[in-house]
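Quarterly update from the structural biology core.
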Amino acid sequence: MNGRTLTTLVAAAMATGLVAAGCSTGGGGGGKSSVGVGVTPVQSGSLVEGLPAPQIDQNGYEYAAVQINQVPGGTVGALAAAPINTAVFAGNFPGGSVLVVDDTSVTLSGSLFYEARSMAADGAAVFAATGNPLRDGAGDLYAYDATTSTWSIAIDTNDAEMVVGSGLLGVHAAHGGARREGALRRRTGAQWSSIASLQSAIPTAIAESEGRLFVGGSDAFGGHARLLRLDPGATSLVDVQLPGVGGFGVRQEVTSMVSIATVASGSITPVVSEVLIVAVANFDATGQGVAGAVFATDGRQRVEVIASYSGDAPRTVLFQDSALVVVTTNGKVFHRDAQGVMVEETIPAALGVTRLDSALSRDAASMVMGGRTASGAVLVRRVARGGGYVAPVGDLFYRPDVRTILQARCNACHVAPNNPAAVAALEMNFNDDQATFNRLQTRVNTANPAQSLLLTKAIGTSHGGGTAIAMGSSEYNTMVEWVRQGARYETAPTALTYVAQVRTILTDCASCHVPNHNSQLRLSNNLSLNMQDYQTVLGFINTATPETSQLLRKATAAVNHGGGARFQAGSPSYNTLIQWIQQGTRFQ
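Predicted structure, tokenized:
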């Protein structure tokens, strides 16, 4: 890595046409303004192209604030959904207290020894990770006991920083500090076991995507951003290359990450994958955000710039109303519209927000942000006037509407043999849609859709896998509406073809398997010759036993493959190829 700052890198990207414009303040009008935050034009086949269509509330958004403390410089550094109506847990700075904040009330939940840096909810369980870069031993993890309404320490370390995250892979915590090795831990029952070294990274964020775990942070020695990936079954983290590194007088870190399911095809069996959205920020010596960018990555080699910032930095990225929302350190909120433009929303000046340090999608209608005003910490609630994004009007079917959601959110556990306990409860086989659909029929309640076992489990109620789908999200609403309509299978099946589905998957192979590649699988440049590539691929297919096809065995590294595993057995890409072979390997 060299010493260029991210600002320099983005300037270079602008010069080459990768970024459309630099950051500007923009104007008001109608509660929002379209601004020149750097936007990467969406290219055909890009990661960004598959992001869900934004469903921005046409009635706009209202902002309201609750004062947390009266300490200048005070802020809310971490947020988590509280299992109490629409309340949230808020990590208060300074002081280390955890508050329960509803629309108008603020009550003390408990006190931590240091300030909370991150929080994570897993069903009824809530965790708070603390830290202080100047204090070795500040990096600890606390657990909330809903029965006694108390916080107790779960992990006590000698490191300065701790971060926590939860998802389909469970609850994970990472800790480290300046010039320290650090570790990644996984919760199993009440125990926390170390599963990998952080390789001198100071952790700031945890996320997962397509069954892989990611830890973001900064380098303990160089001050540049780090993104580390843990593959299924692996015991060591590997670095994912990010553009740009921190320069002189600049500290750079991954401030936030979120994964989102993407759909590369609108067919009955769409190619479903996940994209990891990563926010990277540069901070000066005073802790002020001075530059940054938001990226989309497949977690391996592909990285695309979504937006770049100068004079400001992205603090949190999340999805609300099916739209990417970026919250910045300078107290600004942007959402990405249907044209890929980052639109700045107008936060009322009367709220006095000068900085935002945390954000949380609380439900379909509201987003909560923690930040600063001149007089102290504040919690800001952004509410969609129209009630937020709800399920689209129209007929819904298992294929493709619900299948797409289940494959993205439940595939990691409920597909044999990944998790025997989960499989025993509900085995999903995306190679046999009819069989999976039949099993789902025993878990839906058309008289009271929201009480369907499929839905209550998905939102984390008595579910070993925790929260897989957020209540009130577009995915949740789609499934509720599907059940209400009668939980129907499909209209008419559409056959998979090489041109529509398989070619998209092969884009991950085309960068290596060029015409002069040293293997027998030689594809045309940029997959430009469809029929030629189709004929080549057929030579690596076994229609009698699809799972033994050389194409699949190489791509999953079941046999020696110089490019390593491109996807896992049972992943969306793998299942699509299996189905394509079973259906007769149609061209188009």
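Confidence is low (pLDDT under 50) at residues 1-44, 265-270.
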